[in-house]
Amino acid sequence: MGVAIIGTGSYLPELKLTNRDMEMMVDTSDEWIITRTGIKERRICPKNKASSDLGYEASLRAIEDAKIKKEEIEFIICATITPDMYFPSTSCIIQKKLGLKNIPCFDFQAACSGFIYGLEIARGLINGCGYKKGLVIASECMSRLTDYTDRSTCVLLGDGAGAVVVSYSEEDGIIDSFLSSNGNYGNLLFTPAGGTLKQSSFETIENRENFMKMEGSTLFKIAIYTMAEAVEKILKRNNLRKEDISIVIPHQANLRIIAGVAEKLGISIEKFFINIEKYGNMSASCVPIALDEAVKEGKIKKGDLIITVAFGAGLTWASNLIRWIK
Ligand code: ACO
What we know:
Layout (H helix, E strand, L loop, with lengths): L1 E10 L4 E3 H7 L4 H8 L3 E3 L7 H16 L9 E4 L10 H9 L6 E4 L5 H16 L3 E9 L9 H4 L4 E11 L4 E8 L7 E2 L11 H5 L6 E2 L1 H22 L9 E4 L4 H11 L10 H4 L6 H11 L8 E8 L3 E8 L3
Parallel strand pairs: 4-5, 4-6, 11-12
Antiparallel strand pairs: 1-7, 2-3, 6-7, 8-13, 9-10, 12-13
Bound molecules: acetyl coenzyme *A (ACO).
Acetyl coenzyme *A binds next to helix 2, helix 6 and helix 8.
């Protein structure tokens, strides 16, 4: 028995924050943002909504796409670094919104690599624990961690959610996953306050320590190296050549990072699905949203071999090898 993706869905909030808008907020320019990152606009979740709302909408679409009844869902797992609150989990909140009861639901996080980790967790739940169908969601409101006075980070981030229905299957859909991390690089990308180490206080708010901090240029180089490694390793251990891959679904952190990975691997950038210009970096949600769009745009056909690949805070990096069986 195998495990396969049988439905995909995504949801982007309507509100757009364009580069022109950013020009009015910080000392930047449309030209700088496009040439240095490839981003033109990003979506922002309204103040009265949260990650669970985006994840719920994406889940409804994935369930509809899978042509199953929502009651067939036997677990819900959600990758997020921007949960609605510490607890209950965003997965449990989505469960309630979906009107489902008495199934396991939990969140986990590997930052931008979260969805890729999630597919492997789901594969384990189905193969190892006997569940038949489940939802793997990634939902992020990165705008909530963004310092809109810091031009080096605020132009990069956006909000959105993606979801897939995974199911036991006679054909192997999720063939393999490569997961890795290195905690020594944790200081390159983090939020100093708001956790148990440094609780939120007037001081942390004043010092803007509840927002994401990042060493962009160091991360840039590590991202290219680690994402290329994640692709090379998964190809090698499955005895595949680069030519066997139909499409690569990369994390959308920076167009120049994607181009760097393509060059390092010797795979044409044409094989990489890119939608960064519309949404920016939505952390874990980038990969499932890109996967959903690639499927809906007819860029993925039955039988295709797909590689997903990401890197993120932790640092984490990961890839999945997927055969599209739908
Ligand atoms: N507008 C105009 N100028 C800017 C901006 C901006 N928005 N941001 C930075 N600059 C300036 C810098 O101040 C610097 O000026 P200086 O030379 O006078 O000091 C100059 O541009 C070059 O800065 P660099 O940081 O060297 O620019 P770089 O080409 O490295 O691009 C970027 C910066 C886009 C951040 C890039 O390093 C990057 O994408 N890094 C990876 C980031 C990433 O993916 N992080 C993951 C975050 S999300 C997550 O995981 C949850």
